Description:
Layout: E1 16-17, E2 22-23, E3 30-31, E4 64-66, E5 84-85, E6 89-90, E7 97-101, E8 105-109, E9 114-116
Antiparallel strand pairs: 1-2, 2-3, 4-5, 4-9, 6-7, 7-8
Amino acid sequence: MPESTQCPSCQSLYGYPTGTSMMCPECSHQWNPNETVEVVAEEPTDSSIVKDANGTVLQDGDTVVIIKDLPVKGASKAIKAGTKVKNIKLTTGDHNIDCKVEGFGAMGLKSIFVRKG
């Protein structure tokens, strides 16, 4: 087994041997450590494109409008439908929008609950 245990998919440093191959505990990617990995420039895939509730593609810096009352853990009130959120930042994961909502602070939103505005 090689000395490097870095996952070629997510760059995690916690890869571990599984007999003749390596496995990443963070992304479940499995690879052969004896093969050379060719680095290819990433092109946008369907999973990296974030769309709002209407199917419009969102970008960093867009302004969005929340389309549904959203309860907030630890807050006494919900974020009301129609609330504008400016200057969003797109991320990966379940809550794929990072933003600051006036009166609530920084939080993550799901793109299915917003529309481009």
